[in-house]
Amino acid sequence: MSIIVQKYGGSSVGNTERIKNVAERVARYRAQGDQIVVVVSAMSGVTDGLIKLAKEIMPLPSEREMDMLLATGEQTTIALTAIALHALAVPAVSLTGPQAGIVTDGVHTKAKIQNITPKQVHSLLDQGSVVIVAGFQGQTHDGQITTLGRGGSDLTAIALAASLKADLCQIYTDVDGVYTADPRIVPAARKLPEISYDEMLELASLGAKVMQSRSVEFAKKFGVVFEVRSSLNENPGTIVKEETGSMENVVIRGISLDKNQAKITLVGVPDRPGIAGCVFRALADAAINVDMIVQSVGHGAGTPATDISFTVDKADVLKARKVIDGLKAEIGYREVIADEKTSKLSIVGVGMRSHSGVAAKMFETLAKENVNIEMISTSEIKISVLIDLAKGEQAMQAVHAAFLE
Amino acid sequence: MSIIVQKYGGSSVGNTERIKNVAERVARYRAQGDQIVVVVSAMSGVTDGLIKLAKEIMPLPSEREMDMLLATGEQTTIALTAIALHALAVPAVSLTGPQAGIVTDGVHTKAKIQNITPKQVHSLLDQGSVVIVAGFQGQTHDGQITTLGRGGSDLTAIALAASLKADLCQIYTDVDGVYTADPRIVPAARKLPEISYDEMLELASLGAKVMQSRSVEFAKKFGVVFEVRSSLNENPGTIVKEETGSMENVVIRGISLDKNQAKITLVGVPDRPGIAGCVFRALADAAINVDMIVQSVGHGAGTPATDISFTVDKADVLKARKVIDGLKAEIGYREVIADEKTSKLSIVGVGMRSHSGVAAKMFETLAKENVNIEMISTSEIKISVLIDLAKGEQAMQAVHAAFLE
């Protein structure tokens, strides 16, 4: 007898009909003799509706009270899901996050799970019940209700799977799994049967928005194997797990395109120690997330000067310019150029470690397409290039064809 | 510094505008230097909406899961009310029933409060916060969420007032207080400045639906003085408290008319011991509530026979007839007559104990109006008569004029 944790997102439980569908799927799994724990999100639209009510009263409501308010969304879904299982004559009991033993720190609206004591979950499973747990929520040691922030229900599922030593953790969503590339851009994209945590993390942070990075990090840390799959069909999804030897046989696992990056260049920066530190400290203090950074080799005669380029989210460009303007006197750069017509193309794969020539092949492919590379950054299993926004999709298709078709 | 408990019902918190109004009232009381505990119901319509969702899935959902589901209604209101107080710069913290220390038995959907440990409420009050508590809900000793059934939020307020030894408990509703009679029927009806628990209980059980009996009983048991008043204006309401000597100076406190009573008569019942016991045991076993009972003196020649009449809720008439039909062979009555065209008129007042001639005056008044009395029942502080439904309102006006104008 296995323990299976299944997580269903907001659109999978968006109305009572869909909740009944979820119950039918749960019942089928249970009929195979397994113990099932179901983690559900708030019905789609419910959380937004609650936020709207709060903002009608006050633009910036207290985070503690927002947690109190939003936690009702998942609590509604667990009760309805339990009732839907009862309607199929399946014994089921719902538990709030606190009742399921999920203890967090006290950082309201983005609490971190500190530990899980799933005593009640175990005892209900042993009594033969399906256990329905509210995702996204927990409580502090002194009983304050907290929520886990964006993607919190995935985290609940993975943390519960770790704590219950579950045999399988399934994340049901509205996509079929993880693809080699976004199929809307690359029609030849294929669903991956499996992917390593590290590859998934690179893809998550690169904007392939299947799951939040911290859920994948948590799964990696505790060795939770999970499957991303669709609640709308019976297709197998993508298994996310620790890297295996055979994974390296595939050079590139996937390709992502992030159209949300803008490039900012400080031209004519004096080439002396401490300048880069000064710039990026100021940006960090303003809570601006910097992704790629390139500093060109010093050039020009007389005072040695250089250029510093970096990328930020397009939404942060104005804020970043303000910060940089404030440093003008201190640093003495010549000018600032912001370019929002850029996109970041990345290839990801653990096979890069053991295959040489991957970067060369990527750059050659882009050259053939007449795509100019503006910046490059690499990690052990990833190569990212910043290119013209207008050529992003064409470049993605070409690189996909070169590596994956 | 006093502790004041204020309870606001579903229509008082029916939308964000009304919640803001509630917050303003709370802020005014707090500005006078008192410690305020606010108990709120679910926003009107929310509970019905949740019940509808559950019934879309299953006609008779589990009571445990209904408690899980419905408890979200009050939890939503407490968060929004706390936010509304923050918007007025008043420190406020919301607590669910379980967080406020309300422990109940495990009878889901109609749990009884077993005890309250308001440690957290006291500590928040001492820190200067208004404390907003979710009405209608609690938890069992082992952490199951329960709800208290109809009128549960009133009960939460009164039980909290008892447990906190509050100086004042205010029940805000959409009526101004308790009246001598329903002003929609008797234009001359007056609001009562005060009423005793026992009188309030008689009126509550007689259909003057300001509050559920069990909340009044709880208040009487623990000596909680409370005020019923309107959340729509600043008028003083009606104080409900233990009987005082001066209360007996008023002969009649109020009059109620219950149009929901039907009379069932068993004609020609053998006049021998055990018959009445047999009839009313069978009705009780079928969970039919019997109100008035009259057995006429035996009459007729030969075998002594009698008639037994009683009243039940109109909704129970069919069920009651079925029960009686099933007793035909055993008892051997001649026939059964059900009359739904009846109403019950009652006068209530602790002054009856020390004033004679009250019943005579009531009967004379009805005779003058040509109203026939079909049944009579009395308690120490109440006289009820069953009369023709069509003459109910006219009779009520006449009796009000005789005693109260």
Please provide a written account of the structure:
The structure is a homodimer of 405-residue chains. Helices cover 35% and strands 26% of the residues of chain A. By secondary structure, chain A is an alpha/beta fold. The first copy, chain A, has 2 domains: 3-174, Carbamate kinase (3-Layer(aba) Sandwich); 244-405, VC0802-like, CATH 3.30.2130. In chain A, strand 1 (3-8), helix 1 (16-31) and strand 2 (35-40) form a beta-alpha-beta unit. In chain A, helix 1 crosses helix 3 (63-87), helix 6 runs antiparallel to helix 7 and helix 8 (275-285) packs antiparallel against helix 9 (317-331). In chain A, 48% of the residues are buried. At the A-B interface, helix 1, helix 2 and helix 3 of A face helix 1, helix 2 and helix 3 of B.
Topology:
Two copies of one chain form a homodimer.
Chain A: E1 3-8, H1 16-31, E2 35-40, H2 46-57, H3 63-87, E3 92-95, E4 102-104, E5 113-116, H4 119-126, E6 130-134, E7 137-139, E8 145-147, H5 152-164, E9 168-173, E10 194-196, H6 197-205, H7 213-222, E11 226-230, E12 238-241, E13 254-258, E14 261-270, H8 275-285, E15 290-295, E16 305-313, H9 317-331, E17 335-339, E18 342-348, H10 358-368, E19 375-379, E20 382-388, H11 392-404
Parallel strand pairs in A: 1-2, 1-9, 2-6, 3-6, 9-11, 10-12
Antiparallel strand pairs in A: 4-5, 7-8, 11-12, 13-18, 14-16, 14-17, 15-16, 18-20, 19-20
